[in-house]
TrEMBL record:
Residues 73-125 form the IBR domain. It holds the Pfam family IBR. This is IBR domain-containing protein. It comes from Amphimedon queenslandica. One of its GO terms (cellular component) is LUBAC complex. Keywords: Metal-binding, Ubl conjugation pathway, Zinc, Zinc-finger. One of its GO terms (biological process) is protein linear polyubiquitination. The keyword ATP-binding does not apply. One of its GO terms (molecular function) is ubiquitin protein ligase activity. Signal peptide: none annotated.
Length: 132
């Protein structure tokens, strides 16, 4: 059995794995909640969210595979990064990487993951047309 620290509910290992492997792949870290009661309901309390996520990451490391653990770590890092000024999430299909735009005076930014351009102000994709 897996003990959920936010609420005290107990889940069998298979239910924990099934619920959190889907949550990690499909949801924001703010929605990594107990499947029985939905706790914790953290709202905008980033400090409580951070504490809950640290516990959950440790549990994921023990009970899920390394792919899910790595993705959980990445989502947690992205969440922390998203609180920084100048944070941008790539809007290009299939990417979605998060990064800090260190050059906020530039309107066009290049995603460090997919290397495609987007507008920092409106977040629209920038298409380059090459005329020969």
């Amino acid at each position: 059995m897996v003990y959920m620290p936010a609420c005290g509910d107990l889940l069998c290992k298979d239910c924990f794995k099934a619920h959190f492997s889907i949550a990690i792949r499909e949801k924001s870290v703010k929605h990594f909640n107990c499947p029985i009661c939905g706790l914790p309901d953290l709202g905008n309390n980033d400090q409580m969210l951070e504490m809950n996520l640290q516990l959950l990451v440790a549990m994921v490391k023990v009970h899920l595979d390394s792919t899910d653990y790595d993705l959980c770590q990445k989502k947690l890092a992205d969440f922390n990064l998203s609180k920084e000024p100048g944070f941008v999430r790539c809007t290009h299909e299939g990417c979605g990487a998060g990064f800090i735009n260190d050059f906020r005076d530039r309107k066009k930014v290049e995603c460090p993951e997919c290397k495609r351009l987007m507008c920092f102000l409106c977040k629209k994709k920038v298409l380059l047309i090459i005329i020969q």
